[in-house]
């Protein structure tokens, strides 16, 4: 529950109750919040996009699922919070991910279609393979984000835009905003941000600037007066 404290606090400021005791109570709270902000009233603002922001923040609070070998991890850690399931493995077509290949081979061995591979019978070897899969998965995510950042720079280079943004986090010397139109999240700093509160809508300018001695390009957000 501790990882959801930022979400609970943010929703409380907006007059929305959020129960994160279990994944089911969280899902129910998100549904109720969506209905509440859609119609407004009773201390809850009418804001169609607020529901999307709350779900976005809830996703950010969740710990990323990882592959593991059941013989190497305590059973209390088997559960999948997001799916509210006590035990879970995923598999699709085995042409997609090596994790799927492993699961298909294990299933085939369980139903007698083929003999189990030696590597699948030793938990230490499976655990080692799971760690490789987790590292590769994280690296693929990093590469995807870096690619998105690169093409975002290319898009806004010499093509500054002024758009609406929503405040998703308030800091001591600024705020973090999310720009729905482009799916961009970034920081706004300066004295002008002191008037902004959580979930406020503000107008920002998106542009690419060269900063530092290296003159490296960065995406810069600034508050439009």
Automatic annotation (TrEMBL):
Chief place of localization: nucleus
Gene Ontology CC annotations of this record: cytoplasmic exosome (RNase complex); nuclear exosome (RNase complex)
Keyword Nucleus appears in the UniProt entry: yes
SUPFAM superfamilies according to UniProt: Nucleic acid-binding proteins
GO molecular-function term, one example from the UniProt record: endonuclease activity
Keyword rRNA processing: yes
Keywords: Nucleus, rRNA processing
Classification via Gene3D superfamilies: Nucleic acid-binding proteins
Domain RNB as annotated: residue spans: 47-110
GO biological process: nuclear mRNA surveillance of mRNA 3'-end processing; rRNA catabolic process; rRNA processing
Cellular location(s): Nucleus
InterPro entries in UniProt: NA-bd_OB-fold, RNase_II/R, RNase_II/R_CS, RNR_Ribonuclease
Protein name: RNB domain-containing protein
Originating species: Chloropicon laureae
